[in-house]
Design goal:
4-stranded mixed beta sheet, single chain, mainly alpha, 1216 residues, two-stranded antiparallel ribbon
Length: 1216
């Protein structure tokens, strides 16, 4: 993150001797050489002893009264020696102590300095050690930049003579070399470390010997226990080399280690013990023999500046002292050093400068995670002290504080909200002061904790960034776009993105120089911001292609996800990504595997396209495993693993974050396999189903958090800094993300034919917690809109439009999830489908306006397939959508193939739900489809024909002829998948053509011929067998009306007509009165069942119990009214009620009188249109036409008992 950087370039309010401001971590050590204000330095400064008198040159140098004079002497003297050069630097430091910046600048560029540097470099071996240290210190105080060879020579002498050097001189030298930015300081720190280690080993050996002697002398238990207690209470002594150093030198040494990233556990532990010891005694090192004054508490003597440097160093080293006592003693409490340091900070917080506060905050955020919980009190105190003083903070200090507060970890989890919100309020007024590094760092910190500042704050930041963008590095641009992409409610200005694109493309080679993580972050930000630029994406793909071998799996996943989200297909990069996945499959996290596979599926590119052997193979002892098979096998092993937040096992058994699939990742993985048409295996499907079942059973309705923005920041304490897949957090109960994952998984199951009842029952039970709740109340809406009302008026329309767009996007996502889940449950025919769809209906009705026409078709088809009748309002809305689609097609000069396909689907779905659309609308649909029938599959055309016939609508002859002619030509002469008609579609088409009386058409004859020669024989589905019987009977009745033709038709009936009793159950005997009336009222002209025209004895099929009950109720109602009636069953299974008897002179050939009329029950579902109750549908319509062909008037049984009796009596009166 841009904010996580060293703050050594920051400035403090105090000034050093050259007038420049100084960092608190750059605290100056004591300067013993300059305490003597006489015109000559200490003896070692000029390298002479007390017996050697000073030379004339030395006297001239010491007696100079200005910097120019002393430099003139140094430059003009031919006898200048290394010791004299050291004297010149010492004199310059004394003379320029109060000088202005101009004099200092003039001295830094004097031509005599290079000569002095050369003399010091070659004469370093002859100079005393303290003179060398003084040279380094004076270069720091004067602001000089000596050449690296000089620093290397001085460092070499320090390392060689370190055993004889005073520890204080070594610490001062390390501090000065760090200030001079010398890269070879590690050699000096290594020498110090070796010195400390050697003394520590000697001390340890001495302690071991002493301990052994003590143990030999301990003969009794009481004496041994007393000595143990004394040893536990005794402080661990630091190494002697460190024990003589004062606290300031110890802090400086630790700071030098931190700046150089030099990590040595013995050295750091020794510094910590020495700090505790010298701070506890209230003074400097332990080298003196005088009395010391005890301090009030350990580390209490450290100044705010030293405490700031202490925490900064520990954060830089990512280290805390372990604080073990001497060997053999039990360890001290692990938080002791930090506890005392934190207590000292809290006591002196009012005295801290802004830079000190930011340093301590940054150091806390960088401590090891195990030590951070103990720092929560200090973090809270820091937040309380810093928030009111943010106006006094420098821009870099402000950025550093915000970055620290936003860092993941428990230290700031309870205090970050106040700091983050207060810092955001500083941006509008100080945006002109912020550099791109500070501004990008603050925005990335906001995005890390999922805090979205008000639009006014972000607008001010974007205006400043637009001004700075041409010079912003590509790495900072990646963080900027990533940060803006994680603020979903804010609409990033398009001009800013255009400027960012120009800056990226204008930096030649900048993209190729990015780190893999920065490139991935840049791609992900562009994708989430929906900014499409083909040229920029091509450049990004080329850069990613060049670094794919060294790219981390997560970075590769983020890059592919962004390209897939924008539908940009870089084929060369995809081939490289497939090889990367094959070679590093074990290194890929489960979520990265899911994202990569989802990207391939979204782009429609098989990972092994065009490669030998079906694609790249993973490493295998034998021939290797194909990539998709390897991914499926690896995912099956990981799918059953639970993430830490879902595991209920003992402590320590949970997996680390990222080692287990999230529910969203599992849904993305299965969706990819389904889209790529590769079956992943039953093991993976079963494991995914079990994971979802376990999660769904734990779902509870979501509770809205209170507290506004502060609670939102607080809730995201440990939010990850980089996300995958749209953001890619796992959804929780009540979150649309979980509903989306559930629906995608169900859709994938339907593609694989994996019907798991437990999965869908769990989904059904969890739906109340998953589906969106009711709209918020008015007070809640006002509360949510209150921050927006405080924004400037010119910002409100843009933000309101963006929020409306987000609401539409969320509504469309929920509508898609509802339709996909309904479709999958109905397609798989699981037992939970009817209750599941019933629970989905309220949410589907609420999101009907957000459904696309295709999603609406899926939903209607699922309802019809599962036998769930939706409310009439939903069907009316679907009919209106159909009318709008027809109007749009007519306005465009005709329907396109996609619109024609949707028209067929909607007509078929509405008919399946017993809804009869207007005749004009159905005619317009058929006419629109007829215009582009060759581009519509034969299956959809068959559904269109059946849909019109099912509701009793006869399309216009010309349009119907165009559809049937195209179907006949394609089914008879064409080849291809679009001309294949499966058995259900063939049966529906045959039934529809018979219901539309297309007996003479070529298509009907061809379909009837195919129906007698089905590839699998007689269909097993009862519904298809019934429809075949209905079509055959209807054809026999309406096309061959005379008895001779009917008998001939009975001889050629297919096999399903010869066994009509297979699906029928036992016939219950009616009571004597009903049986007698039935015999008297039976029709006798042709009593055979086989011809399909007569009336057979009643036989009830199990699936027709409701129809039989309705027919029996109608029969009893007529009998109670004195009308002769009896219950009959047609040969294709329909129950009817015949009533009335013909006059005695009009009896049939068997001597019995014929019935005068019949009642076709239509009160059960699907027998009459829900929007036109007197309009019979489907089987009831066939029954009506069969009876009409036999000369029997039909009364639709759709009314109540009284209306039915009155209607029947009126019909009998007309007949007689």
């Amino acid at each position: 993150m841009p904010g996580n950087r060293s703050s050594s370039s920051n400035r403090e309010g105090s000034s050093n001797s050259n007038g420049t401001q100084q960092h608190p971590q750059q605290q100056q050590p004591p300067r013993p050489q300059q305490r003597n204000r006489r015109p000559h330095p200490p003896r070692e400064a000029h390298g002479t002893s007390s017996k050697a008198p000073p030379s004339e040159l030395d006297r001239q140098i010491w007696g100079a009264r200005s910097a120019g004079e002393v430099l003139q002497v140094a430059g003009s003297s031919a006898d200048l020696t290394p010791a004299s050069a050291a004297s010149v630097l010492s004199t310059l430091a004394r003379l320029l102590r109060g000088a202005d910046a101009g004099q200092r600048q003039q001295a830094r560029h004097h031509p005599a300095l290079p000569r002095m540097y050369d003399l010091l470099q070659h004469g370093a071996p002859q100079l005393p050690l303290r003179s060398l240290v003084g040279v380094l210190q004076q270069c720091v105080w004067l602001g000089l930049r000596p050449p690296q060879p000089l620093l290397a020579a001085v460092t070499e002498q320090l390392v060689r003579r370190l055993p004889a050097a005073a520890p204080t001189d070594a610490c001062h030298a390390a501090w000065a070399l760090t200030r001079l930015s010398y890269g070879g300081i590690s050699s000096l720190l290594g020498a110090i470390d070796a010195q400390v280690r050697a003394q520590a080993e000697q001390q340890q050996q001495a302690e071991q010997q002493a301990e052994q002697q003590q143990q030999e002398q301990q003969q009794q238990e009481e004496q041994h226990a007393r000595q143990q207690r004394e040893q536990q209470e005794r402080e661990a002594a630091p190494p002697p080399w460190l024990a003589v150093l004062p606290a300031a030198s110890l802090v400086n040494l630790l700071w030098a280690c931190g700046k150089a990233s030099y990590r040595s556990q013995p050295l750091q532990e020794g510094i910590a013990r020495a700090l505790l010891r010298c701070a506890a005694t209230g003074g400097g090192g332990g080298g003196g023999g005088g009395l010391v004054r005890p301090a009030a508490a350990p580390l209490a003597s450290l100044t705010p500046q030293q405490l700031s440097m202490l925490f900064y160093s520990m954060g830089q080293l990512h280290w805390v002292p372990s604080e073990e006592a001497s060997r053999g003693s039990p360890p001290q409490p692990p938080a002791r050093f930090l506890r005392h340091a934190a207590a000292a900070c809290r006591r002196q917080l009012p005295s801290f400068t802004p830079q000190g506060l930011s340093n301590v905050a940054w150091g806390i955020s960088r401590l090891p995670r195990g030590a951070q919980p103990g720092m929560q009190a200090l973090a809270a105190a820091l937040a309380a002290a810093a928030a009111p003083r943010l106006a006094q903070f420098g821009t870099q200090e402000l950025s550093m504080l915000v970055t620290a507060a936003a860092a993941p970890g428990p230290a700031w989890c309870r205090s970050r909200a106040a700091v983050v919100q207060a810092a955001a309020g500083q941006i509008p007024g100080r945006a002109h002061e912020l550099s791109e590094r500070d501004l990008v760092g603050m925005l990335s910190a906001f995005a890390t904790v999922r805090y979205e500042p008000p639009a006014g704050v972000l607008d001010a930041a974007c205006r400043r960034l637009a001004h700075l963008l041409p010079a912003v590095p590509a790495a900072s641009l990646s963080w900027l776009l990533w940060s803006l992409a994680r603020m979903p409610r804010y609409r990033t200005p398009r001009p800013l993105l255009h400027t960012a694109e120009a800056a990226l493309r204008g930096q030649a080679g900048a993209l190729h120089g990015l780190e893999g993580a920065d490139l991935a972050r840049l791609c992900w930000g562009l994708g989430e911001l929906h900014y499409y630029s083909g040229a920029l994406l091509a450049d990004l793909a080329c850069a990613a292609r060049g670094m794919w071998e060294g790219m981390e799996p997560q970075s590769m996943a983020m890059v592919l996800h962004s390209f897939a989200q924008q539908q940009f297909t870089p084929h060369e990069l995809l081939d490289a990504a497939a090889e990367h996945l094959a070679a590093n499959l074990e290194r890929y996290s489960p979520q990265a595997v899911a994202v990569v596979m989802w990207s391939f599926g979204r782009l429609g590119v098989h990972p092994g396209r065009g490669l030998p052997g079906g694609g790249p193979c993973t490493p295998h002892p034998q021939d290797g495993t194909p990539l998709l098979a390897a991914v499926a096998a690896c995912s099956a092993q990981r799918a059953s693993l639970l993430p830490p937040e879902q595991q209920g096992g003992p402590a320590g058994s949970s997996l680390a974050a990222g080692e287990a699939f999230s529910l969203q990742g599992l849904s993305m993985l299965l969706w990819a396999f389904a889209t790529l048409e590769h079956h992943p295996g039953e093991e993976l499907l079963a494991a995914v189903s079990a994971r979802f079942v376990q999660a769904l059973r734990q779902c509870q309705p979501r509770a809205q958090p209170a507290g506004g923005a502060a609670a939102a920041v607080q809730a995201s304490a440990d939010a990850p800094a980089a996300g995958l897949a749209g953001g890619q957090q796992q959804g929780t109960a009540g979150d649309p993300a979980l509903l989306k994952a559930l629906s995608n998984t169900a859709w994938s199951f339907s593609k694989f034919g994996f019907a798991d009842d437990a999965f869908f029952w769990a989904a059904c039970d969890a739906l109340p917690a998953l589906l969106p709740g009711p709209a918020p109340s008015a007070p809640a809406q006002q509360h949510e809109q209150q921050p927006q009302e405080q924004q400037p008026r010119e910002q409100q329309p843009r933000q309101e439009g963006h929020q409306a767009e987000q609401a539409r996007h969320q509504g469309a996502g929920e509508a898609h999830s509802i339709s996909s889940l309904a479709f999958a449950a109905a397609k798989l025919r699981v037992e939970a489908a009817p209750p599941l769809l019933t629970r989905l209906l309220p949410a589907a009705r609420a999101r009907l306006g957000d459904c696309s026409t295709e999603e609406l078709c899926q939903l209607l088809w699922a309802l019809a397939h599962a036998g769930v009748q939706p409310p009439l309002a939903l069907l009316d809305a679907a009919a209106q959508r159909l009318a709008a689609l027809v109007d749009r097609a007519a306005a465009g000069g005709g329907a396109c193939p996609d619109e024609a396909r949707l028209l067929c689907m909607v007509v078929h779905a509405l008919a399946g739900l017993a809804y009869r659309a207007d005749a004009a609308l159905l005619d317009a649909c058929v006419a629109a489809v007829a215009g582009c029938a060759p581009d519509v599959s034969v299956s959809l055309l068959a559904k269109l024909v059946w849909g019109c016939a099912h509701v009793g609508h006869d399309p216009a002859a010309a349009a119907l002829e165009a559809v049937t002619s195209d179907l006949y030509h394609r089914l008879s002469h064409s080849r291809g998948n679009s001309t294949v008609l499966n058995t259900p579609d063939l049966v529906h088409l045959l039934w529809g053509l018979a219901a539309l009386q297309q007996y003479h058409s070529q298509l009907y004859r061809a379909i009837a011929y195919r129906a007698t020669r089905l590839p699998d024989g007689v269909p097993d589905q009862p519904q298809l067998r019934r429809m075949l019987r209905e079509a055959t009977v209807l054809h026999s009745c309406e096309h061959r009306l005379n008895p001779v033709a009917a008998k001939a038709a009975a001889a050629i009936l297919p096999a399903w007509m010869a066994e009509p009793r297979e699906e029928q159950g036992p016939v219950e005997q009616q009571d004597g009165e009903q049986q007698q009336e039935g015999e008297e009222g039976s029709a006798g002209d042709n009593g055979s069942d086989s011809d399909g025209t007569g009336l057979a004895a009643a036989a009830a099929a199990p699936r027709q119990q409701d129809l039989r009950a309705a027919a029996e109720a109608a029969c009893r109602a007529l009998q109670r009214a004195g009308v002769a009636a009896s219950l009959k069953q047609l040969s294709f299974g329909d129950f009817i009620v015949v009533f009335g008897l013909s006059p005695s002179g009009e009896s049939g050939s068997n001597g019995k009188r014929r019935p005068l009329a019949a009642v076709v029950p239509a009160t059960t579902a699907g027998r009459a249109a829900v929007n036109a109750p007197h309009q019979l549908l489907g089987s009831a319509l066939v029954s009506q036409r069969v009876l009409s062909a036999r000369g029997l008037p039909v009364v639709p049984g759709v009314d109540g008992e009284e209306e039915l009796v009155a209607h029947c009596r009126g019909l009998l009166a007309e007949q007689r």
